[in-house]
Amino acid sequence: MSKKRLSHVDLSCKANSVKTFDNEIYELKGSLAINKENGNIQPVADIYYRVRTAVNHHKNVIAKRKHTNDELYTYVKKKAD
Question: For residue 81, what pLDDT is reported?
Fold first, then answer.
């Protein structure tokens, strides 16, 4: 499976929580993102370009980006040989 770009719509469906480049953690509830520390609610589309890592409900990383100007790609765990 090759990595592919994850849109904010896919992110809303597949991710349970995300971490941003400024170390904020948001819990995703449909198309809304809830900041775990201060309770601020924003649309996922508004925080999409700040998302660094996306995690599903099994706590597995499903998408990530290394730099703020990179695309958000699905994450494929490397197999240990």
Answer: 58
